[in-house]
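FORM 7B - TANDEM STRUCTURE REPORT

SECTION 1: FIRST PROTEIN
SEQUENCE AND TOKENS:
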Amino acid sequence: MHDGRATPQELSLLDYSSLRCPPSLIAGAAVLLAQASHSSAPLSWAAMQQLTGHSPSALHEGMRMLLQLQHYSSVAHRHEAYQPLLFVRDKYAVEGWLLVSVRSAPLAALPPMPAGF
């Protein structure tokens, strides 16, 4: 078995603490994470705030939570509490899903909050 990572959005469905977050917050945070990972353009915090109705600070916290879940999925084989995350990680570690769970996004890669928010 490889040491891949699951997609953050789907991992949030397996974590009870993420139930406190509205789906629009999870989706907005996931879009910002994808933009940060795959684009050199500045993150569109204002546009995401307008689309989701969530403040940049709430979206930033959602991004942190999703990255943390992704990290947990990478160590799930060593911690029984995180083992349900293995299913999602393995699901997206195939060519048909473009091996998205194999990509790494460390918590340290969390983009900084924009100034003025």
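SECTION 2: SECOND PROTEIN
SEQUENCE AND TOKENS:
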Amino acid sequence: MILFPYVLKYEFYASNYISNVYISGIGIDDMFLLMSGMAEAPSLREISVEERMMIMLRNSGISITITSFTNLLAFGIGATSAFISIRNFCIYTGKI
């Protein structure tokens, strides 16, 4: 954390500590989408594991792409904020 202002060229605020929790929440959100796709796939008695994974990723892949794009868009817009702490939080979290 000491090298943060020198390496990334902007200040580190206390609000940036929450970004690790926020990134974990984004990952958990994607996991819920994957589990939803797995629930929609036929059981292993009917198809192989590879086919079930293919169906799961086909169903969930578009949703994960959309949520990732909206997160990127939100962090990009937040990086242009007039509030310095919000701008640095969005830049820091977007880089993780």
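SECTION 3: OBSERVATIONS ON SECOND PROTEIN
The helical segments are 4-7, 19-40, 49-78, 84-95.
The chain is about 70% helix and 0% strand.

SECTION 4: SIGNATURE
Preparer initials: ____
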